[in-house]
Design a protein that fits this description.
Blueprint: E1 4-10, H1 14-25, E2 30-34, H2 40-45, H3 47-65, H4 76-86, H5 93-101, E3 104-108, E4 110-115, E5 118-123, E6 131-143, E7 147-149, H6 165-169, E8 177-181, H7 185-196, E9 201-205, H8 217-230, E10 233-235, E11 240-244, E12 252-256, E13 261-264, E14 266-269, E15 273-275, E16 309-311, H9 322-341, H10 354-357, E17 361-363, E18 368-373, H11 376-381, E19 386-392, H12 397-400, E20 409-415, E21 420-428, H13 435-444, H14 448-451, H15 464-472
Parallel strand pairs: 1-2, 1-6, 2-3, 6-16, 8-9, 8-14, 9-10
Antiparallel strand pairs: 4-5, 5-6, 7-15, 11-12, 12-13, 17-18, 18-21, 19-20, 20-21
Helix pairs in contact: 1-9, 3-4, 3-7
Length: 474
């Protein structure tokens, strides 16, 4: 029957695609439903386009640090054209072709749970051609609907039609005057990107006392210092009290809590995201449709009779990172296949072990912030016997070769009882390639004694590993 599948996936973003493709590859029939572009937020409006905009600025910073090299200037139109190329000009036909070539049935429309193992596909919502189709799953439904940006309830803000990550990464004309609200990843990355591309008057307003408050404090301090040096105005412990935009598309007046009034061309709101759970039918199966879907370590939703519902990626609220959503999808799909075929569903790869330990993250500012595992504060709050070691990355031979003014810091949080790493943070330009080694060490629980024999090549920045171990006393 064309409307019955072994597994139905709601959402064709990175996590949904991985789940559907892996399930189909294992021999089960699978369908995936997507109301927007197949490939999801990351491919078109987040990870990929933001890094395409940041990469030229990253290279310009490297060139500026190396004597003997000169930069001929930034061709903004070419940067935006490259961004468009990286997002396939916002055309998902190639992605749909890949999905179907993997043996997965693709449905364009809004997927909504209708009851146990039933999913309604709504197409053409709000028009006279609106229609629906009901699909039935023999074994499982996977919710992979992602997350959406939160617009805070500031008087006049919503009416001013502020930018979110989508408008920022998809920018066509860079505004001269830009206000960014929020000091998290999106706020910091896009303040730097848009300022470098022409937003000469860029102001970053942060309610708290620091940037990037989920990582080590020195990381946010380094990024704040860098943004300030580049010409971005960073206002800590400040709030936006009221916004006025009397003419659509015209000048915006922003009243700050400290009494200052700003006039800007656009506002970018980067104050967090929430799971997309509203209006996807969770209440029809007894779940709260106003909060993330709670799951166990096999990604199966808790509180659903017969255990047929799963949730992966941002929608379960565990870790709002693309690579972690794809990891959860691999876990989830293997478990579903095993349970459908009646084979062992508790093999080592069938449980989420990485999230509790700490997912890796790279923040692509200059300097880059690369972190995995627990921060020092988290480790202490959890009761670990903690020792911290740090080292200046510019002091290793590889760091000195990166150019004049290259600076950064590495920090390792050690569990003294087991002599293993609980968390590692690198803050420096071009530090991202150091992170996977740290991820392996943290998630695998590699002992410091074994790490001592992992000899870093000379002269590379990775020699900072040796310096950290020496600082520890190896």
């Amino acid at each position: 029957m064309p409307d019955v599948f072994d597994v139905i996936v709601i959402g064709a973003g990175p996590a949904g695609e991985v789940a559907a493709g892996r399930i189909a590859a294992a021999g089960l029939s699978a369908a995936v439903i997507e109301k927007e572009l197949a490939g999801g937020e990351c491919s078109y409006w987040a990870c990929i386009p933001s890094k395409a905009l940041l990469r030229p600025l990253d290279l310009a910073g490297e060139v500026a640090r190396v004597p003997g090299l000169t930069l001929g200037g930034l061709a903004v139109d070419d940067v935006l054209a490259r961004r468009d190329e990286m997002v396939s000009n916002f055309d998902d036909s190639g992605q749909v072709q890949w999905i179907e070539s993997a043996g997965v049935a693709f449905f364009r429309g809004k997927g909504r749970l209708k009851g146990p193992r039933e999913v309604e596909v709504l197409s053409g919502e709000g028009s006279s051609s609106s229609s629906s189709l009901t699909l039935t799953a023999r074994h499982a439904v996977v919710v992979a609907t992602g997350s959406s940006p939160v617009i805070p309830p500031i008087p006049g803000l919503a009416e001013a039609r502020p930018w979110t990550n989508r408008e920022a990464t998809g920018v066509r004309a860079v505004p001269q005057r830009l206000l960014v609200i929020g000091g998290g990843v999106v706020g910091c990355e896009m303040a730097q990107a848009l300022h470098g591309l022409g937003a000469k008057e860029t102001t970053l307003v942060v309610r708290g006392g620091g940037l990037l408050e989920r990582v080590e404090p020195y990381a946010g301090e380094a990024v704040a210092r860098s943004l300030t040096e580049q010409g971005v105005r960073v206002l800590m412990r400040e709030t936006v009290e009221r916004v006025e935009r009397p003419v659509p598309g015209g000048e915006i007046t922003v009243h700050l809590g400290g009494g200052e009034t700003l006039r800007v061309d656009e506002i970018l709101v980067a104050t967090g995201r929430r799971a997309v759970t509203a209006d996807i039918g969770l209440s029809t199966v007894g779940l709260d449709d106003h909060r993330p879907v709670r799951v166990d370590d096999s990604m199966r939703a808790t509180g659903v009779e017969d255990g047929w519902l799963y949730a992966v990626g941002d929608v379960n609220g565990i870790s709002l990172l693309t690579h972690m959503g794809k990891y959860q999808a691999r876990v989830c799909s293997d478990v579903i296949v095993a349970r459908a075929k009646g084979t062992a569903d508790d093999l080592p790869g069938m449980r989420d072990l990485a999230d509790p330990i700490g997912s890796p993250q790279v923040i692509f500012t200059d300097p880059q912030v690369c972190a995995v595992g627990r921060t020092e504060a988290q480790a202490r709050s959890e009761g670990f016997d903690v020792r911290v070691v740090e080292y200046e990355m510019g002091d290793v031979a590889g760091g000195s070769l990166m150019g004049e003014g290259y600076r950064g810091r590495a920090k390792a949080v050690v569990d003294e009882r087991r002599r293993v790493l609980l968390g590692v943070t690198f803050v420096a330009p071009a530090a991202s390639d150091l992170l996977h080694g740290a991820t392996i060490a943290v998630t695998a629980g590699v002992s410091l004694d074994d790490l001592w024999h992992a000899v870093p090549a000379f002269p590379t920045v990775s020699e900072v590993w040796l310096r950290l171990l020496e600082a520890y006393g190896m």
